[in-house]
Sequence to fold (516 residues):
Amino acid sequence: MPLPATQPPKHLQRLLAILALALASGLPAARAQAAKLPAPGAAAIDTARYAVDTYRDETIACLAELVRFNTVANPNIPLEQNPQHIGFKRYLKAKAERLGFDFADYGAVVVIGTGNSTERLGIIAHGDVQPVDAAKWARSPFELDAVSEPGRLLARGAEDDKGPIATALYGMKAIKDRKLALRKRLELYIYMAEESDWAPLERFVASHSLPKLNITLDAEYPVVVAEKGYGAVKLTVPPQPAPANGQPVISRFGGGFFASQIPEDASATISHATPALEDQIRRRAAGQTGMHYQFTREDDQLLIKAHGVSTHSSKPEFGINAISMLADALDVTNWPPTTAGMLVTFLNGMVGTGYLAEKFGAIAYSDSFMGPMTFAPTVITDSPAGLSLNINLRRPQGKSSSQLSEEIQSALKQWQSRHVSLDKIALVIGDPWIAQEVPQADVLLGIFSHFTGAPDPKAKAIGGSTNSRLFPHAISFGPGMPGEVYTGHSEHEFITTKQLLLNLQMYTAAFVELAK
Fold:
């Protein structure tokens, strides 16, 4: 269970105290405190340098092989029977054997290891990826593209999470080459359904002996010690009768691709649209920043396509939500209560163009360490039952799940009392998480500081959920850099060559320091 906001764990208390001292005393004090972080030893630095000097090209080539497999979950094929997943694991087994590692296949999880010690360091990653719209890519998203944008390696999984797998493999290889006498065995755990279904991994961790110390390569630097809870508000606007008087109505509205992606595409159809109405919509859309619109007329139908910027739903600030923005562009009149018209009315009245739930009753809140709850529409689906909306939320500590649930239900009840009844209302409210007893945090902060030059790196919280929650004493270490746009889950996923090689160095050093 998450700790109360006033009681962060001891390692966070120390880090927050450092921040307070820095604010009180200025940069020199902050640097003095930062100097207390343990610097990586000579063996770690030397092996990290060896890894990047020796295995630069091999790491990139390995990534190219990993991304060839379309490891998106297929709802019609069980994971263990999916040919792409089978091929991916077969490649990993052959790769492990060539590198001199042992390999174990547990179905949804594979473990690649080196060393004979009974003490172990766990390295956690995932081999599955999110869905992808191939039409949006210069080349196939399942082909490593190093040409279209020089300096960048584009592919689905390049950052999330096949790049980290490639760097982990060659970090382990560099350590093996150097014949370092480590106290802990290294074990790379690769889960094959992180993006779609955590149940198989939950069963695995419940039935297997796990390393007592773990790092996850699926988030951000410098070190992630807390994660918001994943959640969703799901609802359906049931079919509504269309007025028969020929007045302008929204006859269709849709958008989004999958639940954990901020949508970059949305569309609407306005029936019986007048030129004056079209002009109003165009002018309102023109006042938005970062959006692109296409207007097409077919008889008295006005078709509008909206294009924003997709991003991971845990980071809505890095995207431009096409669903929210298109609804806002249509907010030029009181639309008749068609099914689509009611959904647009709901979006404008309850969500707006922000992502902090400011308009959704009293549900908005924030935590001093974990940040604010984010709240963003991600997918609309059309069916005979009506138009269904998924709103993704990422909640920090500070409110109980029962309080948040009651506030959401209250806000929905108030809206329905003024408009129409909604169907199939469902809430998913996951718990926020804070790591407990993670002595590796300072070691990793010291490694990050050494290799990046950052004078005062601090542990942080993120909006995403990683498998750190399921492994003992686990925290995340990369691969995304602080302040940089995270491209996983977007239609423009990449990792720079520079970052891939920096990760190779930092991961190699981390393995040495934590296993020595």
Q: What stands out?
A: The chain has two domains: 42-227+433-515, 230-429. The two ends are 32 Å apart (CA to CA).
